[in-house]
Amino acid sequence: MTDVACDLCPHRCVIPEGAAGDCRVRVNLGGKLRATTYGRPSAVHVDPMEKKPLYHFLPGRPVFSIGTAGCNMHCRNCQNWQLSQRGGEEMETVHRAMPDEVVALARQEGCSAIAYTYNDPIVFYEYVEDTAAAARSAGMRNVFVTAAFINREPLRRLCRVLDATTTDVKAFDDRFYQEVCSTRLKPVLDALVTFREEGVWVEVSHLVIPTLNDDLQQIRRLCKWVRDELGADTPFHFLSFRPMYRMQNLPPHLSQADRRSVDMTGREPFPFTRRRFLAAAIGAACGWAALPMTRALAALQSSTPRGPIELSLAAADLYAPHDLAG
Ligand code: SF4
Q1: CATH placement of domain 38-318
Q2: pLDDT of the residue at 175
Q3: Closest C-alpha to ligand 1, atom 6
Q4: Cβ contacts of residue 58 below 8 Å, gap of 6+?
Q5: Quick one: DSSP state of residue 199?
Q6: Exposure of 62 in the CB half-sphere (CA atoms within 13 A)
Q7: Strand 62-67 with 43-48, pairing
Q8: What does the alpha-carbon distance between residue 286 and residue 269 come to, in Å, rounded to a whole number?
Q9: Is the Cβ–Cβ distance between 96 and 127 less than 8 Å?
Q10: pLDDT value for 320
Q11: Ligand 1: which of 7, 12, 13, 36 to mutate, judged by most atoms within 8 Å of the beta carbon?
Q12: Which of 119, 198, 286, 321 has CB atoms 3.0–4.6 Å from 84's, for a disulfide?
């Protein structure tokens, strides 16, 4: 019986023969590490790019999106828990699509990019790497939608075939990461810097959970970190909370906290992105369902130049954060 070590993410699982790592989908089969979801997506959709959310990378274009099962985080509020908190053998729907077939399907659907999304693509790393390489050869772009709990070395290698990422920062608080997500903050921040160093286009998202990570000073520190370490031109998207999975005891969104976030972002010195940033934040504060988006648009246009703002808000109309496409 030979144990195998997985060095892909900071969990660094040592997996006994016949067992799986913390993510449920990387297993020890006969003393070899295998990814059980290679070539087996459980979710396949064509989404608007803004749904990732990416607002400044191929805006308005459709993106062929695939996800599998499993995750190396266990967020109590996970919006896609039916995928992420299950192993491959527990999935009701499993397609078969090897990398070249994914690229062919994307082309057939008129997409010029492929997104690895829905569950964290870190846990289907090899499938991403091979599909992204095939997509590159076919002239397509690759988008990595992640919470970025990954070790630096494998991330650097993967960056060679990635073009853009939306990275979700759960909180600027290590205790939150430990208690709500079963992970740590520092590797996520390191990964964001690595994306930047490797020339991958980065947009950051942040889901505001009432009472848990909505402290304004903490949000402000996160904003400052993004500005200082990633650059003031980094788009930043606030997402609204919806009660899901093991966190159904909280209200859908706390308007007051969201509005205070909007207010704060309006004052935060992000010279280039502030208005876009604000636009996204207003979308979050509106809670999408109530959607006084046209009023928000009118208010913004009366105080800011047209152009990028219009684009962000038009995109925001399409955007349902963390939804699986229906
Ligand atoms: S990717 Fe999975 S198996 Fe590998 S270290 Fe992370 S949780 Fe463990």
Answers
A1: 3.20.20.70
A2: 96
A3: 9
A4: 49, 112, 113, 141
A5: T
A6: 14
A7: antiparallel
A8: 23
A9: no
A10: 31
A11: 13
A12: 119
Minimal CA–CA distance to 244: which of 76, 131, 126?
76
Q: Which residue has the tokens 């009701």?
A: 92
Residue 128 in 3-state DSSP? helix
Pocket probe mutation, ligand 1, options 3, 4, 6, max atoms within 8 Å of Cβ: 6
Ligand 1, closest atom to CA 25? 2
Q: Which residues of the chain have pLDDT under 70?
A: 240, 251-326
- Predicted pLDDT of residue 91: 74
pLDDT value, residue 326: 26
Residue 43 C-alpha to ligand 1 middle, in angstroms? 21
Contact call for residues 26 and 15 (beta carbons, < 8 A)? yes
Which residue is it, tokens 């208690």?
A: 179
Residue 160's identity, in one-letter code, is R
Indicate the SS3 state at residue 59: coil
Provide the 10 A C-beta neighbour count for residue 206. Answer: 24
SS3 content of the chain, % helix, strand, coil (to 5): 40, 15, 45
C-alpha to C-alpha distance for 187 and 89, rounded to whole angstroms: 29
pLDDT reported for residue 253: 54
Encoded amino acid at 245, one letter: Y
Model-level pTM? 0.81
- CA pair distance 197, 49, nearest whole angstrom: 23
